[in-house]
Specification:
It is a single chain. This protein has about 230 residues and is of the alpha+beta class. Helix content is about 40%, strand content about 20%. It is built from seven helices and eight strands. An eight-stranded antiparallel beta sheet has the order 1-2-3-4-8-7-5-6.
């Protein structure tokens, strides 16, 4: 091997070792944080008569838009909390994107895998997908056409996207739109009418307080939608 080749190989080896020195401690810290969060949620479930679980293979089938919202064709479920809010069952999940695909030639070592809180409640009447996102969360509706529903205050606050605009205008009318535009909980979340579920998504890890606040929001939404006009 030439001197130049040996130097290049040495530089590659040094870069690899540096990458490991950065990557391993970061991943260990993330694992410890994940274990601590899971322990908090498991304790909360036990104290409040709920169920704590580690896997949910059917989440993408139940919530088809989750991959689009998270921004990756793969979504990892860390754990979930199953409970009820005012007699409405809910499931709250902590999900994450997988780590960025690593390329040996560039020694990419980023471990940015942001967590998201996802909550599902049953949708009483199946139907088309309908997505609401606060205007400031434009990333959630990138490249998706907005639908205006005719309530000026609501249209100023929310992006609405759907393949069925007539359905959106049938559902999104006062007093529902008045309530949504005024409720700060709705202004912080992405809300999706999935085919058979109602889903809310927030950036950040799952916490007991966050799970119950989202469950409260989605239970209110479920009670306020005029389902009898959609059956």
């Amino acid at each position: 091997m030439s001197t130049g080749g040996a130097v290049a190989l040495l530089l590659v080896l040094v870069a690899f070792l540096i990458a490991l020195a950065i990557l391993v401690p970061i991943r260990l810290r993330k694992r410890r944080r994940l274990a601590a969060t899971a322990a908090v949620m498991a304790d909360f479930a036990a104290v409040n008569g709920m169920r704590f679980g580690r896997t949910e293979p059917n989440l993408p089938a139940r919530a088809p838009s989750i991959n689009d919202i998270i921004g990756d064709p793969l979504v990892y479920v860390d754990f979930h909390l199953d409970g009820t809010m005012r007699d409405v069952p809910f499931q709250a999940f902590q999900v994450r994107r997988p780590p960025p695909r690593q390329h040996a030639e560039t020694f990419e070592v980023s471990t940015r895998t942001p967590e998201y809180t996802v909550l599902l409640v049953p949708r009483p009447v199946p139907g088309p997908e309908l997505r609401l996102a606060p205007r400031r969360l434009s990333w959630a509706t990138a490249f998706r056409r907005d639908v205006e529903v005719g309530d000026p205050r609501f249209d100023d606050v929310f992006h609405v996207s759907t393949g069925a605009p007539d359905f959106a205008r049938l559902v999104l009318r006062p007093p529902l739109t008045t309530w949504l535009a005024a409720d700060p909980r709705a202004a912080a979340a992405i809300v999706v009418f999935e085919p058979a579920e109602l889903m809310a998504v927030l950036p950040g890890p799952l916490t007991p307080e966050g799970a119950m606040a989202l469950a409260d929001l989605m239970t209110d939404l479920r009670h306020r939608v005029p389902w009898t006009t959609l059956a």
